[in-house]
Design goal:
By secondary structure, the protein is α/β, with parallel strands linked by helices. The chain has helices spanning 12-28, 52-56, 64-73, 78-91, 101-108, 124-134, 151-157, 179-193, 208-220, 255-269, and strands spanning 36-39, 46-48, 97-99, 114-118, 144-147, 166-170, 198-204, 225-231, 243-249, 277-282. It has ten helices and ten strands. The strands form two sheets. Strands 5-4-1-6-7-9-8-10 form an eight-stranded mixed sheet, sandwiched between helices. Helix 1 (12-28) runs antiparallel to helix 10 and helix 7 (151-157) packs parallel to helix 8.
Amino acid sequence: MNYRHAYHAANFADVVKHIVLLALIKSMQRKDKGFLALDCFSGIGVYDLHSTFAGRSPEYLDGIVKLWDYAKNNQLDELTSDFLNLLAQISDNNQRYYPGSPFIIAKTLREQDRAVFNELHPEDFPTLKENIIEFRRGCSCRKWQFENSDGYQTLKSKLPPTEKRGLVFIDPPFEKPNEYDLIIDGLAEGLKRFSSGVFAVWLAIKDEKQLGHYLNKLREFQKEVLYLEFTLRDSKGKSGLTKMGISIINPPYNIEQMIKPALLTLKKALKFDEYTNFELKTL
Ligand SMILES: C[S@@+](CC[C@H](N)C(=O)[O-])C[C@H]1O[C@@H](n2cnc3c(N)ncnc32)[C@H](O)[C@@H]1O
């Protein structure tokens, strides 16, 4: 396990991903009934942008820093504004810390909701627990469980949820060449146990052929799927990630309308070159 998310925290892909995650949680909360948020690949929950990890190749400069700067002089849509307010809870005005998915989940779940945070890395797992427990103050939801296992296994061991409502967040490291296949197998297991669940998968897009194959496999589940793609820059001759996707199986009602204004904001705020753009479509 070589991947450490601290190298990439707060980059453009994180910002897009976390705004969509916030929208998903808010959509789930349109109903009073509680739900399970299963975070299969949690990371450490909070990232210090001044750490040596983040400083090695400061991807956050093309991500959250651009959004923070944009927000100083521009009107924001409601979702992006809510997202920045959430960030202010850990960063205050010094803009030093950036939240991961567990922080966003812990801070937004209600008393009746429940969370499972799973992280396999032996060093990152205790850090995750410490970070999230430290931010416990002001959190309504106290039903948190921390797991130190394989993310794909949790799609078997934690589903279906007793609440019969759930948001499953799958955000793997894409270290392995067959990660797309692992996701499809994991989704098959998850859907077998919990066919009405909302399954959101973040995707690193480096190979269009591989992506096409994945999207075709998703269609075979014969479920409603919302697919979002965000491109920051032209991939030719550029190192690093230039394009990301999120596929959402069983998307909550109206999520598209919620996300679109934020994507328009991000397109302007994160603009790198003329390739900066997004696509949102039903598969
Ligand atoms: C992209 S990061 C997750 C970031 C996090 N979801 C966020 O939004 O802040 C992927 C994480 O998965 C962890 N990981 C790698 N392989 C795993 C596995 N098989 N099961 C669970 N976690 C794994 C890595 O250590 C890393 O922290």
